[in-house]
Design goal:
- This protein has a five-stranded antiparallel beta sheet, covered by helices on one side.
- The chain has five domains: 149 residues, Alpha-Beta Plaits; 54 residues, no CATH class; 119 residues, no CATH class; 198 residues, Hypothetical protein af1432 (Orthogonal Bundle), CATH 1.10.3210; 130 residues, Orthogonal Bundle (Isoleucyl-tRNA Synthetase, Domain 1).
- The radius of gyration is 35 Å and the shape is flat.
- By secondary structure, it is of the alpha+beta class.
- 47% of the residues lie in helices and 14% in strands.
């Protein structure tokens, strides 16, 4: 094996799209290292780098060529390789000829399946320079880039035109031909500060060399510089810098040499809802806003320049002029929108299609209002306010502000409703109807907001499922998985004992006869699959969840309470024995094709008991029934399971002393009935037999 060196690959491009650059570089390095593993080239640590103008991978301890490897070719079975006299057959001769050797060079390989004729030889390793070009091209091709482009007369496709390729193995450039370019040891510095070519002396010097020419190659290092400086600027003004991960990632992807600066905007813009100002700063200008200790916006923003200027005034003033224009637009939209009350926009919703088979957004808002009204009555929320909020909740989609900033839907509806004199509960509910927006987002806090958030998602789920547009694979254009999880979170975290099937029935009635009732079982399965996935993500074992799912829960909050109770039960010393015993009981019931209604169990006849253990188990079950049933009805599942844990010794004794499957048919049946009562006690809460791994 040749001496190892550091391998560096850099692809120089025109400015790359700033979103998700870090992942792009990480994937590039991963695909290269994966290819090396496949063809047997060893390597050490793997690094990735990315800036707006380059994507690079660096692998340490890479040899200049593959190791020699032993290759074994298998030929015909010995039985068909030689005839009765021991002479090679045509099959053996043909195999040797195909291997370009004399038949004497072949060996016999013994296996449990039989003996075979084989040819073994040593294959020399390929040189790194000979395989690297194809690996780089394939790795770039594998990158998850939605839109690729061509440039010039080349057939090459990439997200942006490629201008240079650097490939170095230690101090040596590898002159590989890629993308109509010859790779070398030349890279380029900052577009403005050091636009000339830079010769790299060694792959190990990559990061330090680029820093000398005003390029920080490491994405996370640039991100840390920006974040730290932005936080310091916020602190300087006794405020907190609003740093969202997505914006930070984008800004980091826009600069090679980050220079964070602060600038100001006119205080009069603070009359505009701050969410609109922040959206304008973040989406249009890629700047960070600063809030004071009360969460109110300060008239200061942070920009990140890609240039280190002798004087920063020109950069700051230029950004302030552009920001003034952007915020002026936001103020104009806000002023214009308030001239027309939300209620007057409802007619316009009749021209906005929700889904062509399910009607307009006007139709949807009417359904939401009716459904929210019904839910409100179940949770003691003001139904008339839920109805009003439901009718208005989509009206802000027709405003100028939401058209320009779609992420403000609901938020602007809240402001405009307050301006129109709508009740505070209605305005707040319009905003909260969009919560939670993502998996760990905040939930609606007000009763009316809860009814609206549930109604909107229930209507979408029943409607889209009803027309057969269920999610497939990764495709979920209506966000149905997210909607299902939102419903579950609201019902569980807000401790609402609502029957999910009944809620879907109410939502279905909003569509008249359009939606078939048969879709509801599909939706129940869909939602409780999300339930299982959600609890697994929280570290709950699947056996615990499945034990509860076996009871076919209808209320998510109730199911969640059962999961927690079973989780506690599993910590008890009696749990494993009782779980094993319940599994044994379930198998007995199944083998005897007995399916009981656990609400109306067959009668056990104590007069038929022959063993003391039978009588003891019967008495223990009877003594626990009243208390556990009462606790279960109150939702006190943990207390009920703790009581049931006391059955462990008597259950163990029963199975030690009693033959259930006796020849006496009456006796056998009575014992099976007794076991069904035992099983039913636990099935009030969960099928603990599923806890047996």
């Amino acid at each position: 094996m040749s001496a190892t060196e550091t391998l560096l690959i850099e692809i120089g491009t025109e400015e790359l799209p700033p979103k998700h650059l870090e992942k792009l570089a990480k994937d590039f390095a991963h695909f290269i290292s994966q290819a090396f593993t496949t063809i047997g080239i060893p390597y050490g640590k793997v690094e990735h780098f990315v800036t707006p103008r380059r994507i690079a991978a660096r692998l340490f301890d890479v040899p200049a060529e593959q190791e020699k490897r032993a290759v074994q070719k298998r030929g015909p079975a010995i039985a068909s390789a030689y005839d009765a006299k021991g002479n090679p057959t045509a099959a053996a001769i043909g195999f040797a000829k195909g291997c370009h050797v004399d038949i004497s060079a072949l060996k016999v390989h013994e296996t449990p399946q039989g003996s075979w004729l084989i040819y073994e030889y040593e294959e020399p390793g390929k040189k790194l320079i000979d395989v690297l070009g194809q690996i780089i091209e394939q790795s770039l091709h594998q990158l998850p880039i939605p839109k690729r482009m061509r440039w010039g007369a080349s057939e090459t496709e990439f997200v942006r035109p490629i201008h240079w390729v650097l490939v170095m193995h230690g101090p040596n450039a590898l002159p590989i031909n890629l993308f109509n370019l010859t790779a070398g040891n030349v890279t380029f510095g900052h577009r403005f500060h050091f636009p000339q070519a830079v010769i790299l002396s060694h792959a190990d010097e990559y990061v330090n060399t680029l820093k000398r020419v005003k390029v920080i190659a490491c994405h996370s290092e640039r991100q840390e510089i920006i974040q730290r400086a932005a936080q310091m600027i916020g602190t300087k003004f006794n405020g907190t810098t609003i740093i969202e991960d997505e914006l930070l990632d984008q800004v980091t992807g826009l600069v090679e040499w980050p220079v964070p600066l602060h600038a100001r905007f006119d205080k009069t813009f603070l009359e505009v809802p701050q969410e609109a100002l922040i959206s304008s700063m973040q989406n249009h200008q890629k700047c960070f806003a600063i809030s004071d200790s009360n969460g109110k916006l300060l008239p200061i923003f942070i920009l990140v320049s890609n240039t280190e200027a002798a004087t920063e005034d020109n950069i700051i003033q230029g950004n302030e002029r552009v920001m003034h224009a952007r915020l002026s637009d936001a103020k104009f939209f806000y002023d214009q929108d308030r001239k027309m009350p939300l209620n007057s926009r409802l007619e316009g919703l009749k021209n906005m299609v929700f889904q062509k088979k399910l009607g307009t957004l006007y139709d949807k808002s009417q359904r939401i209002a009716k459904l929210a009204n019904s839910i409100a009555k179940q949770i003691n929320a003001p139904s008339h306010l839920s109805d009003r909020a439901g009718k208005l909740c989509k009206a802000d989609l027709l405003t100028e502000m939401v058209f320009e900033f779609p992420e403000l839907q609901g938020i602007m509806g809240n402001y405009y409703a307050l301006h129109d004199g709508e009740p505070v509960e209605v305005a707040t509910a319009i905003r909260e109807s969009y919560y939670p927006r993502f998996a760990k987002d905040t939930l609606p806090q007000t009763p009316v907001g809860i009814t609206l958030a549930l109604a909107d998602r229930l209507d979408t789920l029943i409607g889209i499922f009803g027309i057969g547009q269920t999610p497939t694979g990764d495709k979920d254009p209506f966000g149905l998985r997210r909607a299902a999880l939102a419903i579950l979170r609201i019902l569980i975290e807000k401790e609402l004992p609502l029957d999910l099937e009944e809620l879907f029935q109410l939502a279905r009635h909003g569509y008249g006869n359009l939606i078939d009732e048969e879709v509801i079982p599909q939706l129940m399965t869909f939602c409780f699959e999300r339930f299982k996935a959600w609890y697994q993500e929280q570290g709950i074992p699947i056996q615990t969840i499945e034990s509860v799912m076996a009871t076919h829960p209808q209320q998510p909050y109730d199911a969640a309470s059962r999961v927690l109770a079973v989780g506690h039960f599993q910590t008890l010393k009696e749990a494993q024995n009782l779980a094993a015993a319940n599994k044994r009981v379930r198998n007995i019931l199944q083998k005897n094709s007995l399916s009981f209604n656990f609400q109306h169990l067959p009668m056990v006849d104590p007069a038929l008991f022959k063993e003391t253990a039978e009588k003891q188990l019967y008495e223990a079950i009877e003594s626990l029934k009243t208390n556990t049933t009462a606790l279960t009805k109150q939702g006190k599942y943990q207390e009920a399971l703790v009581l049931l844990a006391s059955l462990q010794q008597v259950v163990d004794k029963f199975f030690d002393d009693v033959m259930v499957m006796t020849d006496d048919e009456k006796l056998k049946q009575n014992r099976i009935y007794l076991l069904s009562h035992l099983f039913a006690l636990f099935m009030q809460i969960a099928d603990i037999s599923k806890l047996v791994i």
